[in-house]
Amino acid sequence: MQETTRSGSGPWRKTKEWWNCPGCGWLGRPDLGDRPILHPFRRLTGEYGECVFCGEEDCNRASEAFVYDDWLCEWIVCVACGRENTRRIRPAPR
Description:
Blueprint: E1 2-4, E2 18-20, E3 26-28, E4 38-40, E5 42-43, E6 60-62, E7 66-68, E8 71-78, E9 84-91
Antiparallel strand pairs: 1-2, 2-3, 3-4, 5-6, 6-8, 7-8, 8-9
């Protein structure tokens, strides 16, 4: 497992939160309490693969889709800088 750390300055927490396995593409957080630590993420390519925070290309990974506030969303994590964000895909099916 390889540790992904946050770097730079800004309002986000500067913690060592994400761990990723370069061989299988799974990401995990060691601070989830009783929830599973590792989750499958897939590599994003093209415009969605570039981190909007650090600018690295092909470094974003996306979680399985989930519904939040009537939107189908993905959790995006940059394996270069460790920052994360929710991405809205489209309105959730009814």
